[in-house]
Amino acid sequence: MSKIPYRFYLNEDQIPKQWYNVRADMPEQPDPLLNPETGKPLSTQDLYPIFCEELAKQEMDETTRYFDIPDEIQEFYRIFRPSPLIRAYNLEKELGTPAKIYYKFEGNNTSGSHKLNSAVAQAYYAKKQGLTSLTTETGAGQWGTALAMACSYYKLPLTVYMVKVSYEQKPYRKGVMETLGTNIIPSPSNTTNVGRAILESNPDTTGSLGCAISEAVEAAVTTDGCRYVLGSVLNQVLLHQSIIGLETKKAMEILGEYPDIIIGCAGGGSNLGGLISPFMQDKLTGKANPYFIAVEPASCPSLTRGKYAYDFCDTGKVTPLAKMYTLGGDFIPSANHAGGLRYHGMSPILSKLYHDGHLDEARAVEQSSVFEAATIFSRCETILPAPESAHAIRAAIDEALKCKESGEEKTILFGLTGTGYFDMSAYMNFTSGNMSDYVPTDEELQVGFNGLPTVGNS
Amino acid sequence: MSKIPYRFYLNEDQIPKQWYNVRADMPEQPDPLLNPETGKPLSTQDLYPIFCEELAKQEMDETTRYFDIPDEIQEFYRIFRPSPLIRAYNLEKELGTPAKIYYKFEGNNTSGSHKLNSAVAQAYYAKKQGLTSLTTETGAGQWGTALAMACSYYKLPLTVYMVKVSYEQKPYRKGVMETLGTNIIPSPSNTTNVGRAILESNPDTTGSLGCAISEAVEAAVTTDGCRYVLGSVLNQVLLHQSIIGLETKKAMEILGEYPDIIIGCAGGGSNLGGLISPFMQDKLTGKANPYFIAVEPASCPSLTRGKYAYDFCDTGKVTPLAKMYTLGGDFIPSANHAGGLRYHGMSPILSKLYHDGHLDEARAVEQSSVFEAATIFSRCETILPAPESAHAIRAAIDEALKCKESGEEKTILFGLTGTGYFDMSAYMNFTSGNMSDYVPTDEELQVGFNGLPTVGNS
Fold this sequence. Notes:
The structure is a homodimer.
Chain A: E1 7-8, E2 18-20, H1 53-60, E3 66-68, H2 71-80, E4 85-87, H3 89-95, E5 100-105, H4 116-128, E6 133-138, H5 142-154, E7 158-163, H6 164-169, H7 171-179, E8 183-187, H8 193-201, H9 209-221, E9 226-228, H10 235-255, E10 261-265, H11 270-284, E11 291-297, H12 302-305, E12 307-312, E13 321-326, H13 348-355, E14 361-365, H14 367-381, H15 387-406, E15 411-416, H16 424-431, H17 442-450
Parallel strand pairs in A: 5-15, 6-7, 6-9, 7-8, 10-11, 10-15, 11-14
Antiparallel strand pairs in A: 1-4, 2-3, 4-5, 12-13
Helix pairs in contact in A: 1-10, 2-4, 3-14, 4-5, 5-7, 8-9, 10-11, 14-15
């Protein structure tokens, strides 16, 4: 029998009791959020109309290295955590690589993804503050499902604006959320000013995360006792998701391993940021030097082809401005299948880390090569991956094949964020040869860049 | 923190290395399989045209108490086992019961269910014998997916006859199997004599497991190097599935627990038999006296309203005769949603145990109460259960509520066989109030009984 098990679980009492805030170890901070009208940095209090107070504080906190996880959240975590760290023995064998491949699997809960880690926290703080409802958006449906789960647990009413293309491609995602008691609205919708305006100018749009964010924010700020919550991009989300990386690091430590290469898929950055944060700490403090790779879809290439600039977090331009890699809110990504990665921007923290050279590499991959990787993986590892996660699998396979060529026994770690049970129409397109790749032209990207705000970008 | 964790995993080296054959401890054996033409008991060799040899031997073996699990199968098991034993703290709290509720969760693998435990074994033995292809049937799609997974791993071509109602209700199940390289045919089909005959007499049939079995058996025996494999009912399947109960028993032992009540859903009996076998050993040998409950759908009530008689295992009457609780192969269950429990018969081992009073109780439950239980469970436990499994949840909740009334702190264990990600159309029917219950009348059942063979039943 192999010394290192296929699936390694920490004990329940080894689940981290604090989140790690990578900003506390960054040599330079991300640029501050700006008020889009005045161009002035926002205060914590300025965020209170949108976010509940505790989350607003977490959003702005650059110095607290560790945040205690409240007992109630720890209690919820124990329902579905720790998640396993899996040694991909079969994938290694299939590839014939000398590399050791590990993945942290976050898909073993109803939401089917890592999103539950932050959903629990956000619903808990909202409930604690006495709020009476929440709104959010969802792309692939993973975040929406996770938050539906958390809100159902805390008995908090929830409205989800679901990107129209996902709403149509994933009726069963909707079914799960409805089973959990959630109200779902396809976005853009005519329930908000922002949605109506977008529908008027572009009636055939299949929607985007940025647009759904606008609607959810508008609905939150115009409803009493309601706040908006977001499953990615935000600093608070990366904080909560650090539990992925903390568990992984502890597990690898026990196994006597340390990754040479760490790979995550990158949409808004929640999974990538959560996985790499504790390892990034090692890099920033000189303890180790792992190589970080962010993998994004070639159809929505914010890190590899976007601009590092101030931009709205949404399409409707109702949010504060954040400095990040962005394709511009006016960029409407093609209706590709990896819905969770269809976002025009990227977490400001990750953007800054990438800009400053700490996050080593961003890589754009095309959809058909992603599904090829997903298919190989599913046949070896008995897990059907979410298309989003499969971006990371693609890169992990490519790195493992490089090791095969060079003979290097590198240790590769990637984040397997979720399962693909709700993505079967995309898989079926791939299996039947009906999947096409799409890479935006420079001209198409320019449309997005033209719409960048002047405020903050002078 | 609670002393007993939410999720308890054995270590990898604690995964059982032998299967347990409950027949070795039964005071009376199930009646032998009969040749439907001669009425004579079948020999092991008689089964070789249908099953691969090793599996035929396991099928007939009444005396070997433990079977070593081959290293290659142990290796595969380690990809997805051990499965967690979960303490349902949240469900207990929601119900306000003093009972302790445990469930063994088998849904954390691509197939989404416990079926993979036997699929791995059956594909392995087939490959080892040098067979070049396999056929099977699938109802809810769980068995088909599991076998697709195993055959993809062992690179064995597979054809799956999928019950038409599931084929239509679960297109994405089909998608998963196709991603794994499987050939899928909706049953009844015009690819077999049996299928053509059934279609001729009943062109609008939505199919049944029994009918799909007929087609798969016919296809196997008429194809060179091909054999038939089955995911339930058979003795060999209960043997392989004993790993569920063995792991559960070991885990409970470590936690210092022992169940007072053990509950499983019952379609063909694979999950129920696997879960209870090692505990049944305790009962049969006088070591303990847990109370066993088999839960079946009121729409297909083989244990509660069927006859204990010899019957064909399929609708097309091409298989040997088995003595079991049966509704008769001519009974066509309504197109209800819990596809995996739509089978006219019941495992001969379980039938015998029930007939002789060792399996204490069979209980039939109606669909809407099952989905009500599933919804409560999903909101508490962050797992969306398969409708099949939810039958067991229904009974577990009912038993826990009885404890609430009586104040008894019973320990309840049930099998959570799988996830419901592919059953969302049924969930959506329930959520929208469009789910109806169906209980066959005595006259409807009589149709099935009238078709029972005379051979063996004189």
